User: Fold Olfactory receptor family 6 subfamily Q member 1 from Cyprinodon variegatus.
Amino acid sequence: MEEPARYFPISTGEWLTVNVTFFIIHGLADLAGHRMIFFSILLLVYVIILGGNSLIIFVTVTDPKLRSPMYFFLYNLSFVDMLFTSSIIPNMLAGFLMDQLTISFNGCFLQMFFFINLSVTGRAILTVMAYDRYLAICNPLRYTAIMTRPVQVLLVVGAWGFGALCPLPATTMALQQRYCGPNVIRHGWCDPSSLRRLVCADSSVDNIVSLAFALVALLSTGILILTSYILIFVTMSSMAVTQRLKALATCTAHLTVVSFSYSALLFSLQVRIIVSVLYSALTPFLNPIVYSLRNKDLQDAIRRIGLRLHLVVLSAPRSIQTGI
Assistant:
């Protein structure tokens, strides 16, 4: 593929074409006086995201009591959250330590694609989890027969496929554009709207395509989640109080994460860059916390893992002494 070019005006009024091989991430330049503060905050958030979600994945994979579909979807969500934050935060952390952060041309578009892809995939898995809760509460007698392991895998593969499809048209069109002026992206990462400002030609078609697929991704998942919970609440209204409270308890953690996810998305579109980054990391940050606090089975599994590790640590000195 022909490499896009950057154009600079010269004294004769003509244009000099220079190939773009990299972009400069300039969104963090305004934080020069507070770099180490934001670096420390973002690093702490990132470590908690990786540690908390890794713990959920480890516990749900190794504990034999957590074999229900809900936990299968949960560890897939945790995996997506880790990849999502890893697509932007490490690069931003490096930017706080450098005078000028650059990213290669291909690297910029890869980052843009995976950022959108993983964002949509996360919401698609939240939609699958809403459907799982709908089946468990509204159709409990057929739940086991419907939500078999092949169906679970198919739903997760569908979520990944949907996430990969949504950013593909906009990313492909962006790759075919030519870019003018200073190759400076005024954002913390390769944000699509910031990148389109550097396009030489009219980018209105790109804007329309990008907006259309963003609406498809957000509205389709949002409407399906909303529909699932409307049906759940209708079913719960005819239950006895004890059954209603038990059913509600199984939905609370998921509903909390969904609320944070969509509110953080809407808020991040209207705030400064660094706040946008923190809100983008909000759902992956809160996901392990919310599920750990709200889910008794997960709490018990974490305690069992902790107890096993504690016993291993205590028995290690004895094993060494015996060996000696």
